[in-house]
Amino acid sequence: MQRLQKLIAQSGYCSRRKAEELIKQGKVTLNGQKVNELGVKASFNDDIMVEGNLIEYQEKEYYLFYKPRGVVCTTKDDKKRKTVLDFFDDVDKRIFPVGRLDYDTTGLLILTNDGEFANLMMHPKCKIDKFYVAKVKGIVTPQEIKSLKSGIKIDNKMIRPTRVKLKKIDKKSLTSIVEITIHDGINQEVKKLMKMIGHEVIKLKREAYGFLTLGNLRSGEKRCLSKKEVKNLYLMANSNMLNK
Length: 244
Fold this sequence. Notes:
Oligomer: single chain
Low-confidence stretches: none
CATH architecture of the largest domain: 2-Layer Sandwich
Largest sheet: 9 strands, mixed
């Protein structure tokens, strides 16, 4: 017997955090009875329904995806925009993105049906490095790079990127290319950091997530993560949580 939200996460329906929200919203039933409080225990032998969907155990799958520009990181979109799941029509499991990239941001995204894994990767203390390349308006100065390295307060939290580098400036177009590695997981973190030093992000691409890179993938392509890669992500995340 396990907590209901953990079973829902293990089924791949969503992360444990999202499962807890659905339980509180009264969108989960156990053997025909609505459950709206946490702490209830069950097993996969029970009849568990979430938003009208039967919950069953699924073999775990993990994907690395090169998200294109103009695609949303949701399982469905009310505005009928293209979602990341439109690129997974050949996958018969119920998968979902681990975290998200903005509509206009491209690059590396992980998708899975393992809610426990997703919950760990998105935990505030997980702090896995994420490497971005940003093209911004204006000429970024060495002093502004120094400010980023020293730390900038966003949403009442001091953010210190792991690494910042001014890669290129174009005086003709008045733009700059900045490489930045972050690990805090704040929504639109790179855009907010650049805005704080007076530069608007024009293009943003996530090129690495921990030790994972896009490799030879093209925009819109995907590959399965190996068991070793998944194991190492678990080890990295758990190590970071113990050391923070």
